Amino acid sequence: MLRRATLCLVGKARRHFHKEFSNFRWLCSAANEQNILKSDVLELDIPRTSVHEYFYERIEKFYKYTAVECSETGRKYSYEEVRCKARNLSKYLIKKLKLQKGDVVAILSPNIPEYMITCLGILEAGLVITSMNPIYTADEVYKQLVDSSAKVLITLNDGAISKTAKTAVKMTKKQLPIIVIKDKVSTQNTNLLDYMKISQIIGYLK
């Protein structure tokens, strides 16, 4: 008798819970619907294409115009230069460094003109970008290199940043290639890969 009464109470409690839970879900759904702000403007038609392809398809008539410029140094590139340098970097990553589609390339750099070129080159090669804050410590850079399984690091030929990059790569205990962007004249004797030479506009790398 006691068992039957217990089962009856449990059954009632379960039915009550399901009813209340259903009401709660309906109220939440209604509340969410009321809180959604919708624009009167028609939705954008987002093309099913990659970022670099979308960019390249629209720059031909602007080839001779400036695409990016550094406000501090005055260093600038036309759309044509951006296109060629990105293509050369893309070919270098694939043919010289033997990266495969889906491999990760890390960027440790401030917002400079070469940053845009680097991103386009990486994407054109079918690779993945992992970007890092240029004020990261060597330990933070090291952790992201490991977590992302980066195969190459592209950074700035700046005393502090390049030192951080080299220290972080050394911590990985791997032969990770480092490509350096020289944004100013440097007298440092370094065995790092020269970004400017890689991306020179002397024809696409074959």
TrEMBL record:
User: Recorded GO terms, molecular function?
Assistant: long-chain fatty acid-CoA ligase activity
Q: What is its main location?
A: other
Task: Identify the InterPro entries for this entry.
Answer: AMP-dep_synth/lig_dom, ANL_N_sf
Keyword Iron in record: no
For this UniProt record, give its keywords in alphabetical order, as a comma-separated list.
Peroxisome
Q: Which Gene3D superfamilies match?
A: N-terminal domain of ligase-like
**Domain annotation AMP-dependent synthetase/ligase: ranges:** 57-185
Q: One Pfam annotation, family name?
A: AMP-binding
Subcellular location as annotated = Peroxisome
Q: Name the GO cellular-component terms.
A: peroxisome
Q: Which GO terms describe its biological process?
A: fatty-acyl-CoA biosynthetic process
Q: What is the recorded name of this protein?
A: AMP-dependent synthetase/ligase domain-containing protein
Organism name: Acanthoscelides obtectus
